[in-house]
UniProtKB/TrEMBL annotation:
<keyword id="KW-0472">Membrane</keyword>
<keyword id="KW-1003">Cell membrane</keyword>
<comment type="similarity">
    <text>Belongs to the binding-protein-dependent transport system permease family.</text>
</comment>
<keyword id="KW-0813">Transport</keyword>
<feature type="transmembrane region" description="Helical">
    <location>
        <begin position="66"/>
        <end position="91"/>
    </location>
</feature>
<protein>
    <submittedName>
        <fullName>ABC transporter permease</fullName>
    </submittedName>
</protein>
<dbReference type="InterPro" id="IPR035906">
    <property type="entry name" value="MetI-like_sf"/>
</dbReference>
<feature type="domain" description="ABC transmembrane type-1">
    <location>
        <begin position="62"/>
        <end position="244"/>
    </location>
</feature>
<feature type="transmembrane region" description="Helical">
    <location>
        <begin position="192"/>
        <end position="214"/>
    </location>
</feature>
<feature type="transmembrane region" description="Helical">
    <location>
        <begin position="128"/>
        <end position="147"/>
    </location>
</feature>
<feature type="transmembrane region" description="Helical">
    <location>
        <begin position="226"/>
        <end position="247"/>
    </location>
</feature>
<keyword id="KW-1133">Transmembrane helix</keyword>
<feature type="transmembrane region" description="Helical">
    <location>
        <begin position="167"/>
        <end position="185"/>
    </location>
</feature>
<dbReference type="InterPro" id="IPR000515">
    <property type="entry name" value="MetI-like"/>
</dbReference>
<keyword id="KW-0812">Transmembrane</keyword>
<dbReference type="Pfam" id="PF00528">
    <property type="entry name" value="BPD_transp_1"/>
</dbReference>
Length: 263
C-alpha cells in the first residue's frame, strides 16, 4: 500500500512538472522570448501531436516501431538471461569472458548501426540486431548481480537435502534473481525503444517513427511534425516504463518490502 501511494505521488509530481514546462514554454513563445517562427508554440505542437494520434499513417509507423521494439526485447530476454545465469554461476567462464564484455560494453550502440547495415540487408533484422546488442547489457548485468544476492544458506540447505545444481538453480536462484531480472528488462525496454527509433533515423526504411520524422522534414510544417512525433516517442517510452514498473511492483512486492525494510 505504501509503495502504491509513493508511486501515485510520483505520478502527480511528474504530471505537475510536465504541466509547468508546458506553461513556461507557451509563455516564452507568447511573450516573444522564443520566436514562434523559429520554434512553434507549445500549444501548436500539442495540437499537432493530438492530430497525429488520429493519423492512420503515423499510427502504422508507431506500430512498426513497437513491433521491432517488442521482438527485440523478447529476443534480448531469451539471450541475456541464460547468459547472465551462465556467467553468474560459472566463475571460470565469467573470468574468461569478462575482458571481452568490458571491451564491448562501452561501445556506443548507435555507432554500430552502419556495421549492422552491412551485415543485414533486411531493415527489420538490422533493427532487431542493434536492439538486442544494446538492450542485453542491463539484463545481463542485473541477472549476474541478482545471483550474487542469493542467500547462500538457502542453497546449502537444498544441497544438504540432496538437491542437484539445476534444482537449486530453479528453486532458489531463479526466484531470488527474478526481481533483478525484471529491473533489467525495464531498463532494457527504454534502451530498445531508443535504438529502434535511432536505427530508423539513420538507416531509413519503409515505416517507423524515425522514418516518419525523416519524411516530415520535407513538409511545410516540418518542425511541428518532427517535435510532435518526438514527443510521442517519448510518451511511449514513459508509458512502457510505467507499465513495467507496475508489473514489477505487483509481482515482486515482497522484494520491495524487504528493500525498504533494509533501509
Amino acid at each position: 500500500m505504501r509503495g502504491r501511494s509513493l508511486l501515485d505521488s510520483r505520478l502527480l509530481c511528474g504530471a505537475a512538472g510536465v504541466a509547468g514546462l508546458f506553461c513556461v514554454a507557451e509563455l516564452a513563445g507568447r511573450t516573444g522570448l522564443i520566436d514562434p517562427v523559429v520554434f512553434p508554440l507549445a500549444s501548436t505542437i500539442a495540437g499537432r501531436a493530438a492530430a497525429l494520434a488520429a493519423d492512420g499513417e503515423f499510427l502504422a509507423d508507431v506500430a512498426s516501431t513497437l513491433g521491432a521494439w517488442a521482438a527485440g526485447l523478447l529476443l534480448t530476454v531469451l539471450v541475456a538471461v541464460p547468459a547472465g545465469f551462465a556467467l553468474g554461476t560459472l566463475p571460470r567462464v565469467e573470468a574468461a569472458l569478462r575482458p571481452i564484455l568490458e571491451f564491448l560494453r562501452p561501445i556506443p550502440s548507435v555507432a554500430l548501426i552502419p556495421l549492422a547495415l552491412l551485415l543485414f540487408s533486411d531493415r527489420f533484422e538490422m533493427k532487431i540486431a542493434v536492439i538486442v546488442y544494446a538492450a542485453s547489457w542491463p539484463v545481463l548485468i542485473n541477472t549476474m548481480y541478482g545471483l550474487k544476492d542469493v542467500d547462500p544458506v538457502a542453497k546449502e540447505t537444498l544441497r544438504s537435502f540432496g538437491f542437484g545444481p539445476l534444482a537449486v538453480l530453479w528453486r532458489v536462484s531463479l526466484p531470488s534473481t527474478a526481481p533483478f531480472i525484471a529491473t533489467g528488462v525495464r531498463l532494457a525496454a527504454a534502451v530498445a525503444l531508443i535504438l529502434a527509433v535511432s536505427a530508423e533515423l539513420l538507416a531509413g526504411g519503409a515505416s517507423g517513427i524515425g522514418t516518419f520524422i525523416i519524411e516530415a522534414g520535407s513538409s511545410p510544417d516540418a518542425l511541428e511534425y518532427i517535435v510532435a512525433a518526438t514527443i510521442w516517442a517519448g510518451a511511449i517510452g514513459v508509458l512502457s516504463n510505467l507499465l513495467f514498473t507496475l508489473v514489477e511492483r505487483r509481482l515482486f512486492h515482497w522484494h520491495l518490502a524487504r528493500t525498504e525494510g533494509a533501509r
